Amino acid sequence: KKPTITHQTCYIISMPNLPQPGDLIEIFRGTYQHWALYVGEGYIVHLCPPTEAAGAGAYSLVSVLCDTAVVTKESLEEIVGKDRFLVNNLLDGKHKPRSVYDILRDARSLLGLEMPYCILRGNCEHFVTELRYGKGESRQVCVYYALGVGVRAVAIGMKALNAASNISCVKSKQKRILL
């Protein structure tokens, strides 16, 4: 049976058209986004943890803790569930998309393959951007990395201010002792 995308079971946000083959699908899972490649007729190809049943991988935040993932083809409606999704060909302005034929051929050739999974260097967003653009990138990782660098910079700055404050206090105490 061919799956259909209905508005009753999944929420499509700001999408004037239904997905087209080769489009990137961003699924909002609360604290993170899951990414998939639309291959047509209501199906997506995405990375799923090998330990979870079909249809469950994209639902679990635990999936990001696995060190391997399997390339699977599943119904978009089943994977989205009650979450929201949108077509987000996020790097079209930066990289030229490959031909739909090449994208779909490569996606099909990877089905069933178990691949290394790393949240920083090889996650579901890297996977689908590699298929669409020939270059794997993850904006989620870039954002979290930038936040981490920013937090570290603030922490280092706070330590430096604290150290400077302590030096100033010591010098002030030394002046009082000398007087």
CATH H-level superfamily of the largest domain: endopeptidase domain like (from Nostoc punctiforme)
Strand order of the largest sheet: 1-6-2-3-4-5-7
How do the SSEs run, as a string of H and E?
EEEEEHEHEHH
SS content category: alpha+beta
Summarize the main sheet. 7 strands, mixed
Instruction: Tell me which CATH architecture of the largest domain applies here.
Output: Alpha-Beta Complex
GO cellular component, one term: cytoplasm
Organism: Oncorhynchus kisutch (Coho salmon)
Domain LRAT: 24-140
Pfam families: LRAT
Which descriptors apply to this entry?
phospholipase A2 activity, 179 residues, hydrolase, seven-stranded mixed sheet, endopeptidase fold (from Nostoc punctiforme), H-rev107_PLA/AT, LRAT domain-containing protein
Structure description:
It is a single chain. The protein is an alpha+beta fold and 179 residues long. It has 2 domains: 11-137, endopeptidase domain like (from Nostoc punctiforme) (endopeptidase fold (from Nostoc punctiforme)); 138-179. It has helices at 76-80, 100-110, 124-133, 139-178; strands at residues 11-12, 24-28, 33-40, 43-48, 68-75, 84-87, 114-116. The protein has a 7-stranded mixed sheet with strand order 1-6-2-3-4-5-7. The chain is globular. Mean pLDDT is 77; it is low at 142-155.
